[in-house]
Amino acid sequence: MGRLQDKVVVITGAAQGMGETHARKCFEKGAKVVLTDINQEKGQALATSLGENALFIKHDVTNEEDWLNVVKITEEKFGPINVLVNNAGITMAKSLFDMSLADYRRILDINQVSVFLGMKSVAPSMKKTNNGSIINISSINGLVGGAIGYTDSKFAVRGMTKAAALELASFGIRVNSVHPGVIATPMIMQGDTKDAVDRIAKSIPLKRVAQPEEVSNLILFLASDESSYSTGSEFIADGGMTAQ
């Protein structure tokens, strides 16, 4: 039996990057995985490659009707939802002076509002079994400063996690946040970006960046019953960066 055997897991932003790694890991451990993303081509290809216990749903995480549709389709296919991984997110390399109000609101909609919508939409499904785990992906920039907009939204995710954890505890639903540091995804480990990442790695206490699987292993722990007494907490995977 896998660590997540027959658990129904919904992962947003699952078509590529860290979301894909989370989805693969959860599937390997016996979960029935629902992958959601706006990238239909990559998302469907991943679900097809995983097999019958994987389902892709095209999903705009900022749209409430889309969220309700994800819950409806998931319950029809697999039953009540056990785990939600609010993974979808964006960043924007603009300064306070250059960022428009539209830019700022787009970041908040995708990084913050989507987390609210996800928790609100999925919690009623979890209540049906009096058991659930919501995992909100924040960042080390939900603990320390970084880019304007991105940092703001990731601090908000941290606070929302604590508020929801208190409200949902009586229903057996746990809510925790994950705060990754620098992750060696294909996007950043190439060209000029790789050189910058290599320089950053020298300042990390563990002297390296994380591999995607190291964050996914934390997701597995929080999704599983092994973390049954953990709620309203931050789980940090940053090689010691925020300890300095």
From TrEMBL:
E.C. number: 1.1.1.53
Domain of life: Bacteria
Entry keyword annotation includes Nucleotide-binding: no
Any one GO molecular-function label of the UniProt entry: androstan-3-alpha,17-beta-diol dehydrogenase (NAD+) activity
Alphabetized InterPro entries for the sequence: NAD(P)-bd_dom_sf, SDR_fam
Keywords carried by this UniProt record: Oxidoreductase
Family named by the database record: Belongs to the short-chain dehydrogenases/reductases (SDR) family.
NCBIfam families, per the entry: PRK07231.1
Protein name, as recorded: 3-alpha-(Or 20-beta)-hydroxysteroid dehydrogenase
Biological source species: Psychrobacter pasteurii
Gene: fabG3
